[in-house]
Each structure stands twice: as structure tokens, then as C-alpha cells.
Amino acid sequence: MRETAPEDLVALLAAADASRLGAHLARDDLPAPVRVLALAWTHRWTEALATAAVVGPHDPPLARAAAAWAAAADPGPGSAAALDRVVAWVRTPGAVDARDPLDGFAAYVAVEAALAHARPALARELLDLVVDAPLPGPVLPVLPVLPVLPVLMACCRARVLTFHGDVAAAHDAWTTASPLRDALPPGSATATLHDATGCLVAGNRSERTRAAALARQVAAALDDPGAGADAEA
Fold first, then answer.
1. Which of 40, 102, 141, 187 has the smallest set of CB atoms within 10 Å of its CB?
2. Which residue has the higher pLDDT, 99 or 4?
3. How many CB atoms lie within 10 A of CB 218?
4. Are 184 and 147 contacting, i.e. CB atoms less than 8 angstroms apart?
């Protein structure tokens, strides 16, 4: 398995933000974890599971986290085992290196994997364990001007906190990412995710006017045929 480099994450996030994951998947040089995530994000779960089948318990954390996310589509016993492998890594004291962009991203993927497995309590536990790793800061120093990853992580945190009824903290997490969201280009899929997350948070804060305005922004972005080149993304 080819090792994933920070540059691989930059390319993946840029493709996802521009709704061009289909074209990205056409590349034959993608590391397995990157391919698994791109397939999962485009809802090609059968292919994601098949690609993740090569990931073993001793592979790098990002590979295990990506496999755990893909395994959410597997109704068999292997699904829980895949999640357990990455959870064990996060729970190991000192295992997540906040200075390592790959560890920071793997920690974020682990939280998303727990949500995908319908394990909100586990997602909150993992979030509390790795909160210093994924938020905030120059997680990808090779491309510090790309705000996609901090916005993704802030939205993940906001969703987890909302599901646990901690709406004030969820609002704080969401608003922290708002300046970064505004720096994203027109048609950004990440900006749409931020707006959708804001709609969730505002709704739980009984801010009906704001929730409705954000919902209209999301609907407009999804209805815009020029928002991206790949319909599956």
C-alpha cells in the first residue's frame, strides 16, 4: 500500500470542494485511503468496501479510519471490527500526534466513521479525545490557504455536539469556521456543507428565520447545475 502524503490530502480535498471527485477517482496513482474516502463521498459504497478490504490492523491510522468509514455500509460482522481498530488507536494515550497532518485528518475521519455507524456517543468520546488534533490551525501546512479541512472538522464537531444537545457549543464551533467558509470559492461543496450544518444548528436553537435562510442557500447551491462537474459528488 502506497503511503499517503499531505499532498494527497490536499488534492483530495480540492477535488471534493470543486465537486470533481469522479475525475479524481480516474487517477491510477491514488493511495488506498484516499480512494476509499473519495468512493465513500460519492456514495460508491460497494467499491469503497472492496478497496478497504486490503487494509489491515497494522496499516497507518488514516487507512484504518477510511476503512472504518466505508465499513458503515457493511451489514456484516466486519463492520464493527473495522471501527474498533481505529477507535483503539484514538483511545491510546498519545497516539494521535496533533502536529502530524495525517494524524489530524485520520482523527477527523474516525469521528465521521463513528457517526456513519450510528454511534453518536462514541463520536462524542472520540471528539473529546482528539479535539486538540483536528481543530483548529494549519493542519495542512503544505497548502495553508486552503480552508476546506478546518471547515469540514468544525462542521463535524458542530454536528456531534448538536446530536448531544450541546447546542451552544455547537453554535460556537460552527461560527468559528464562518470566516473560513467565506474564503471558499463560489460553488464550493464545503461552503454548502457549512451552510447545511448551520441550518441544523440554527434549527436546534429555534432560530427559524436564520435556519430558513440557510436552507434556501443550500437548496440554491444544490439546484445550481454549474456548481460542480460531477453529479455524484
1. 141
2. 4
3. 18
4. yes
Give 170-203 as a DSSP string.
Answer: HHHHHHHTHHHHHTSPTT-HHHHHHHHHHHHHHH
- Tell me how far apart the alpha carbons of residues 154 and 190 are, in angstroms, rounded to a whole number: 11
Calpha distance 201→163 (Å, rounded):
10
Q: Closest Cα partner for 60 from 124, 109, 17? A: 109
Query: Comparing C-alpha atoms, which of 90, 81, 21 is closest to residue 53?
Result: 81
CA distance 56 to 85: 9
DSSP structural state of residue 141: T
Mark out the alpha helices in 71-147 (DSSP H runs).
78-91, 101-116, 120-130
In degrees, rounded to 5, the angle at the alpha carbon of residue 109 between the alpha carbons of residues 38 and 91 is 150
The 3-state DSSP class for residue 136 equals: coil
Q: Residue 134 in contact with residue 104, Cβ under 8 Å?
A: yes
What is the tens place of the pLDDT at every residue in 203-229? Answer: 999 999 999 999 999 999 888 644 433
Q: DSSP states of 8-25 as a string?
A: HHHHHHHHHHTT-HHHHH
Contact 111, 130 (CB under 8 A): yes
φ/ψ of 45, rounded to 5, equals -70, -35
pLDDT in tens, 25-70: 999 999 999 999 999 999 999 999 999 998 888 899 999 999 999 9
CA end-to-end span of the chain, whole Å?
25
Residue type present at position 35: R
